[in-house]
Amino acid sequence: MGYRENHIDIISMGCSKNLIDSERLIRRLNAKGYTVSHNPEEPSGEYVMVNTCGFIGDAKEESINLLLELSRFKDDRKIGKIAAMGCLTERYLSDLKAEMPEIDLVYGKFDWDKFADDLPDLKHSERPAEWDRELTTPPYSAYIKISEGCNRFCAFCAIPLITGRHKSRPEEEILEEVRVLARKGVREFNVIAQDLSSYGLDLYKEHRLADLIDRMADIKGVEWIRLHYAYPADFPMELLDVVARRDNVCNYLDIALQHISDSQLKRMRRRIGKEDTLKLLAEIRDRVPGIRLRTTLMVGFPGETEEDFEELMDFVRTQKFDRMGAFAYSEEDDTYAATNYDDDVPEEVKQDRLDRLMALQEHISEELNEKKIGEKVRLLVEEYEGDTAICRSEWDSPEVDLSYRVTGTQAAPGDFIEAIVTEAMPFDFIAEACENRNK
Q: Is the entire prediction scored with pTM above 0.85?
């Protein structure tokens, strides 16, 4: 059985920012008359486009392995040609072309639209707006990318090398995108960027995140707005007033802190120290009562001592983050750390510290979650497992945070319900729908 002509498979690797680029490409291809499958279990297209990730070593390896696996599909004529785009290709474009002849077409992170231009038109239609896309997320939920790139140049991070300098999208363009999606039934908007904190500085010469979110909250049909990937240095404090005042802006903030030891923060080139970090966290919690904070931390960065790590552990114990992820440092080509520091923390020490940190967070999560037993929560229904509804709260981002397993409801996916928490575990809850309890 051969591949399907005029059919294209798109496989998205990595983060939600990549996913948006895939969705935009799908819209372009559909407009040209092609049928498209996203993340198919069994690729069968005339073309298979892989939207690669190049953020850390494991992600790069996963992208390379997928491309090699697809080459075997091509040899068996189950697919036609292989194409690649995204962060990995942006960073290693010439290397991939030279070393992986299995890939027929290679594009970067920002010229992927040429893939659609390179294909013949199967039907005549107007070119969609640049931001227009076909959602691959559930129809009630969408990611909104408000900027690309980063000016921070942290010592460990390759993102600025891949994406370039921070570039905000125009405010009116973003709001029009939200209006169109809201009219189509999207109710949850997850606002994303490499650096939310810098939104507007390039276009408007001032922080404009608070204004953008305030105006977004005015749009009819917008039920939840959730904020991802703020930077702690030069944080736009006026945003907190908007989060506190607007009911449809979730009391949730994803803010990557990486570490708390002053020596580590300085070596990481984070532009903020321990004292200012603690002040920022205190003010966020003071000005937005009940806010849930998600953060990301790093262990094993060059020069991290056991004392630095214990300081980080104490920080996590006292701050009691509602959501926390962590990873061990891995050296990235051409970053400041790779050029200037020796990767001197042994891998087994990195892994031990990571395990200890995540074990601590699991204990904290269990402790915090148990306090929520008996609480009434507003939940978004996502799917069903038998008669049990799988739901999320405003404090839970898609795919990465906690879920609620709710009995006693027949609400459809995309509906909002109220439920009472009856049981808590480290990473999810059991709840009973209020509609059932009131019968």
A: yes
